[in-house]
Amino acid sequence: MRYHAKVNGAAPLKIPERYVISLTVAYALTTFALSFYPTSGLDLYVSLYIVEYFILTLLHSPFNPKAQKTVNIIGYALFGIFVVIVTMKVLEILVGVSFL
Fold first, then answer.
1. What's the mean pLDDT when you consider all of the chain?
2. Residue 3 falls within a domain, yes or no?
3. Which residues pair with 7 in a beta bridge?
4. Given a cut of 80, is residue 98 above it in pLDDT?
5. Closest CA to 77 of 46, 44, 34, 42
6. Is residue 10 part of a domain?
7. What is the domain count for the chain?
8. What DSSP assignment string belongs to 28-57?
9. Is the confidence at residue 7, as pLDDT, over 60?
10. Which domain holds residue 25?
11. What pLDDT, in 10s, does the model give residues 82-94?
């Protein structure tokens, strides 16, 4: 694992710790920002959370092999959910029937 120099005598955060903190902050800020958006459905929240997950995962890579395998499995599942949401939205536009 990569380590950074100590700052003011405090131990540096490891990559997985920074990753979890970054995800938590990003999800909290997204939830706060979307709370002011008047007509936001669950699909909008989930889509943005998935995009944030992929961006932050790319920014905090590489992980150790066991963690990387877990991150990959979660990523495949989230990508599948994202494809379903996008497909339903496209069908809603083309057919005119709301699925979500």
1. 86
2. no
3. 10
4. no
5. 46
6. no
7. 1
8. HHHHHHHTT-TT--HHHHHHHHHHHHHHHH
9. no
10. 15-95
11. 999 999 989 988 9
CA distance 63 to 2: 10
Say if residue 80 is exposed, middle or buried (CB neighbours under 10 Å; 0-12, 13-18, 19+). exposed
Q: Which residues pair with 10 in a beta bridge?
A: 7
- The answer to whether position 61 is within a domain reads yes
Could you tell me if 44 and 51 are in contact, meaning their C-beta atoms sit under 8 angstroms apart? no
Integer Cα distance of 12 and 18 in angstroms = 10
Q: How far is CA 59 from the centre of its chain?
A: 12
Please give the Cα distance from 36 to 95 (Å, whole number): 30
For 13, which DSSP code? Answer: P
Alpha-carbon gap, residue 49 to 28, rounded angstroms: 10
Evaluate whether residue 38 is within a structural domain.
yes
∠ at Cα 84 (72, 36), nearest 5°?
Answer: 95
The average pLDDT across 48-58 equals 94
Over the stretch 33-45, which tens digit does the pLDDT of each residue have? 998 888 778 888 9
